[in-house]
Amino acid sequence: MSKIGWGLVLLVRAITLGRWVLTRNAVPARAYSTGRRRTSVLLSNNTPNTLAFRQFLLRRYCCKNQVEDEEMSATKREPAAEQLTEYKKYSKGERPVLLTGNGAPIAEKKASLTVGPHGPILLQDFVYLDEISHFNRERIPERVVHAKGAGAFGYFEVTHDITRYCKAKVFSSIGKRTPIAVRFSTVGGESGSPDTARDPRGFAVKFYTEEGIWDLVGNNTPIFFIKDPLFFPSFIHTQKRNPVTHLKDADMFWDFLSLRPETTHQVMILFSDRGIPDGYRHMNGYGSHTFKLVNSSNEIIYCKFHYKTDQGIKNIFSDKAAEISSSDPDYSIRDLYNAIATSNYPTWTFYIQVMTASQAKNFRWNPFDVTKVWPHDEYPLMPVGKLVLDRNPDNYFNDVEQIAFDPAHMVPGIEPSPDKLLQGRLFAYGDTHRHRLGPNHLQLPVNCPYKAITAMNYQRDGDMNINNQNGAPNYYPNSFGGPLECPAVRSPSFSVSGDVDRYEPQNEDDFGQPTLFWRRVLNADEKTRLVDNIVSSLKNASTFIIERAVKNFTEVDADLGKRLTDGLRKAGVQI
């Protein structure tokens, strides 16, 4: 039979099926009758909706299960997908009047104001100009690091007394709760990058205490790549894109790491299973640096902060991470939002390690070196409290993009240590927030101190100031009721000595702790995956860089060096 013949047969069968369906659905068709003549809308040839209704009935018959499945699935969407539905439900169907930026009601927003239907737009079309000029300024600079992130709110609850170490009121009594905000993030990627990249994770906590804001700005690892902040800009450049090709560059990445052996410890953690946590709920957090605690007697003790996930550690292997990055690049953000929305609140147990000043002075390595951990058998973890996240952001831009964490934000009883990298961060974070958000970013609600005080200081004016402290004096000292000092929170004095110079670390053991990590922490399967992960990245670098990196790993353990050499050769690298 010819193609035309087959086409006619199919057409006749389709028409027959359509008529049979219409007959079968005669009852619903009669429901659409037009009145006295009982002429069905379904059968009326001059009714525009006839074809659409026929198609609807045909689909209901032929695709009944599909339609029902779609209707059912619509009721089972994840909480993140239901955000707009929830907004509509809570608004109770009341829709506000649409306004311009200056609060004037808008009569028509379906078309621009033009000369005739095809004519040019008038300059007096303020509705358009107001909209587009604001749109042109919606984006602010993304964070130079930690650009992609998720946030949530909750509280910190004290469960154990540490007032013998610290006078900060956040720890003042068992059972005390302090509001917190937390931001999780990746480090090197842009704001649209996948959540499952092999990358450290930021874990920053903002405590809204009655003494002011305390920001504990850490990561999901207890250490960092470098110990001197002078290297930080260069290090981050190597984690970003080549300035010519705008591509991630293996030579940049591995050249820096192999030239700075102190990075080895963090690099091994990064390329282990821990390098890709399964979302933000299943990873630990650390203050990373050494801090100084001060008690009510002005006695000091050094401290490290830890927060261990109560959900259990879970990681994602490389192949699965690659799959997720293509199907759901916002995996970690979605997981956190949905967990909180379904009242599956994530929690972390908060611990400290403490070291006396005399112990620090006599310790066998620099206790303020952020590339090393304090041994837990010598300085055990002491429980302090719980971090609980039980509320999602009301608006991502306001609550997450504009939240500003600053390691310099401490409260009485918590002070910086001589940790060089911490010292460098004390300035850098506030400076970048002033660039991104403006000089008055601490007046934004998410960054504003929990305790409202009318006249807090002598800082005035500046871009976007919304609380200029009214008529309070703007100079110090003054005789007119301006704020005064609080001698009760004076920090204890401390002594420093030494010659001013630029000191490159000498004879420091950069491989001892990586060796312990390889030999005592990782099991056989984890070692194999660590080697495979390093090989998959390192093989893309220049040969001389590869050889230098392998030499560093051989210093960690000869077996590690041999495995890497064998793996690289199998990958086609001639070394």
Automatic annotation (TrEMBL):
PROSITE patterns for this protein: CATALASE_1, CATALASE_2, CATALASE_3
Catalytic function, reaction form: 2 H2O2 = O2 + 2 H2O
Stored CDD domains: catalase_clade_3
Entry binding sites for heme: Y429
UniProt-listed InterPro entries: Catalase, Catalase_3, Catalase_AS, Catalase_clade1/3, Catalase_core, Catalase_haem_BS, Catalase_immune_responsive, Catalase_sf
Annotated Catalase core domain residues: 99-484
Swiss-Prot/TrEMBL GO biological process terms: hydrogen peroxide catabolic process; response to hydrogen peroxide
One GO CC term on file: peroxisome
Primary role: Catalyzes the degradation of hydrogen peroxide (H(2)O(2)) generated by peroxisomal oxidases to water and oxygen, thereby protecting cells from the toxic effects of hydrogen peroxide.
This protein's name: Catalase
Taxonomic source organism: Tetragonisca angustula
